[in-house]
Here is the input.
Amino acid sequence: MWRKAWWETRSRVVISGLLLVASLLIEVFVVKEGTGPGTGYDWFLKYAKLAAVLAPLVAVTLAGSGLNSQTHWGLTQGMHPSTVFLLSMPISRRRALFTRAATGAIFTALYILLSLGLFSLMLPMLGRQGVEWSQFLSAIAFISLGSFAAFGFATFLATFLDEQMAGGGAIGFICGGLGAGALLDWSNVHFHPMSWLIGEMFIRTGKVVWPLVLLMFAAGAACLVASAVIVEKKEY
Amino acid sequence: MTDLAIEIDGLRKSFGAARALDGLNISVPRGSLAGFAGLNGAGKTTTLRILMGMAKPDAGSARMLGLDATDPRQNLEIRRRTAFVPEKKTLFPYMNVADAIAFTRSFYPKWRGDLEKKYLDAFELGYTQRLPALSKGALTKLHLLLALSRGAELILMDEPTDGLDPLGVEVFLQALVGLAAEEGVTVLFSSHRLNEMEQVVDYLCAIHKGRGLMNAPLDDLKASCRRVVMVFTADTERMAGEFSNIGTVRRDGRTLTVLANGEVDAVVEKARRFEARSVDVQVLSLKEMFLELVKGDAK
Here is the structure.
């Protein structure tokens, strides 16, 4: 099952890898021009904002659509033929969903880790001060939280929508949320979502905003549990 | 241990307003090579989906190998011991034949490597062939290979000969006979090709409009089922009722046709009593038997 999940995810992993390389190149060759003489952490935060946008999109791409991903390989009168073949074997639906979701989650986590890790390593080579462990881990933790919520939401949509609809819906929702966050960041309100989402607020003020952390974690977890329940009850 | 591999009792299933199964009762003895006959939309695929745990019935019970097929945990155990060939024979497009075999084999410890090689040769499949490049018939053959090599106690197949050339059909039918006769495997397969089915099955389940139509050993059905065609001098409207308690009756002007199941003598006797001008007792093929029953049911 793990090998099958890898087969089904590998093209998306390659796309995510290309996105990762592109984001690093953009940061080094384009964004660098606009960065002042600030610390390495200032530049790291700019890159983290890009990562905070890209990581949830990668999460949505890698969330795939669980069992429904096989719909476009032969959707016929509401039945999913290759899913029927899969489920005729001694594997529980929950395990089929879990294997696929876990594969997507592992590669999303790898994307976040590699993305921020590589940029952190590159900073001294680009003549800037490196970031501290606390700054690095804070960004990893908060961006992972946002990506987890996006991943759960995409998985949930995919349990009842086909792959394209689910992906489009999740990306639309994420873009809407991040856009609203960016607007709030520019406005004069006290709370800056993007700053919070990349761990900057925690580093600068020591505040975590636990209700928001719990809300995002609960939303992601609830979406995954709901996905499992829907898949259990669904007829193929 | 029950002697029945499949026991279906009062199974009901609707999709919105459409009733797919309407109190279906059928059973298949262990070790049988059973045919599952029915017209399009009769409920064959829905029945097989319920047995494989892919759909839930509205009412009734479905048991396989002594286990409750409608219980997800028990169905998992059923699937460890059962092979299934679905109606739509698609597989994973990123695999080749070897990958599909390796993936399927990983779920079945009793996988039969000897049968795998035998059917690879018989069906002229190669390990390196990519699945998207396979023809419809070749994909069907691969599905059959994956089902027949699992070392299963029970094999369910939904239209397994769909897309097969005559040679492929022949290889498939021989394989079924071999598995049932030599390995004691129970097989239930649905098909529209009743002539092919008649060549190999020893048990028949037929359904129509979600209800059971026939459920018996084929030899018993063939020995007891006769079509009696009677021609009368007068109109047969009144007489038709006299035969309806013996068999399925069809009326066409002065001709009455009765499908008698085991009571042929009683039909002939009654025909003579009503002074039939001619009485013709006909032996039926499986196809004719099935069609007569369906026509009778339609009336």
Q: What stands out?
A: Chain B is about 35% helix and 30% strand. The CA atoms of residues 194 and 287 of chain B lie 5 Å apart. The interface with chain A takes residues 49, 52-56, 72, 76-77, 79-80, 83-84, 86-95, 103-104, 107-108, 143 of chain B (CB under 8 Å).
